Input
Amino acid sequence: MLNSEKKYILAIDHGTQGPKSALVSTTGEVVEWAFQEVPLYLEKGGGAEQDPEEWWNAILKTSKQVIDKGTVSIDDIVGVCDTSQWSGTVAVDKDGNHLMNSIIWMDTRGASYMKKLHKSLFQVSGYSLFKMLSWMKRTAGGPSLSGKDPVAHILWIKYNKPDIYEKTYNFLEPQDYINFKLTGKFAASYASIQMHWITDIRKIHDIKYSKKLIKKLKLDPDKFPTDLKWSTDVLGTVSKEVSDELGLNKDTKVIMGAPDLYGATIGSGAVGDYEGHIYVGTSDWLLCHVPFKKTDIFHNMASVPAAIPGKYMIINEQEIAGGALQFLRDKILYHKDELLREEAVPDVYKIFDRIVEETPAGSNNLIFTPWLFGERAPVDDHSVRGGLYNLSLEMSRAHIIRAIFEGVAYNIKWLLTYVEKFIQKEKMKVTPGMTKKDVVMPEITIIGGGATSNIWCQIFADVLNRKIRQNKDPIQANARGAAFMASVGLGYLKWDEVQSCCEVANVYTPNPENRETYDNLYSEFINIYKIMGKTHKRLNI
Output
């Protein structure tokens, strides 16, 4: 039945696995959604690519699916907003045609050029001290040695595919490529361009490209979008081709949006300063908005321009969270062919939940470290590896599974320690009566696939010793975030109304009976990293 009172946003959640298109009300109600998987092409030497045409075709297909269901009148769809995977590169010509596959955030082929960039007599952990000081002063960060940043992708193209480099009119983030496909306009948001580390963000209301930094990279400044906008700005209306293909009205507006990390942050409802949220998917992060620019180079986090105009947001990310459960399922417990037979594995994650619920806290002192792909925060250590410590014959798979749940929580507690230190001083200035002894973030929202597990939410509350707010439909946070950005940009919503639009399913409070157990095991978790660091370096470098 059509609902003529509400207005809706066509929200596109474009992740690495593929795009999800959803119809979301301007107040965050997801009424329809469809997903289409997109292939990932991996190459020797660290290559990771996707075909932008396959992105676009999947977006059109899923968008048509949700629109054609007729749940929402075309006249009530007032905007389109995308939130895409971040730190990718699409080389396009002047007509917007992609010239090669997109190099995505996983690609490390540009690492050698980053190593060359940071070559210096004065280095800290492989980084040029003076260059990084110059970069951090302007951007709050700088190009990483991993080669995963877009500027590393672009340098790899420049020296390995010079014909592509010469033909490129603009290098676009996946976010900005999709926006071009929707409108025919070249632009980038202050959020999407940030990971290039070429914008001067010292004045939040006057962000611009840094000619000095682009020159240091030996890149052509005219190959980046000249038009920079806030994530809530209207880029334009849908093109005639998109209007005809999807049946949208020709005056349907396209809002800039922001990459997935920003979309999830807005969709969590934690939009006020110092309001934290945890995302638990394949990877995890712990973020909040702040009113200041700052960098913690030692723990790989910084505050950068947010999707909310005039605000900064802490960015950080840990490599593996829910991915550890996927590893357990696919590589240890079940053969990949068995996973294709639905009757063989009905819903393995629900089975994990039931097993964990019946296993005592602390897993009989078994500790899992989730560093299966190295780690980024609060340590930037690509040689560290995961493991099970204190395993004995008296244990069963139940202890191993619960230890994995708990190990991810220990890792996030490690990150929380430094996030709270990052914001404590500034929060105290604006919080009457707050002292250094007070908890900096007493309540944290949780979203992502991991947030659908009630027992995991309780474990997070117990390990972190914080209240955990579990959002309703936490896996829809990105789509809701895109819708909220559009709703604010179009005037249907104000930022201070966003949190009330995010329904809370449950609030989990720490169980005092588990306090001593988890504090002791967390302490040993940190000791494992300190003790095993040299061993991991010998084995993996």
Notes: The first helix runs from residue 52 to 68. The two ends are 60 Å apart (CA to CA). The chain has a mean pLDDT of 94.
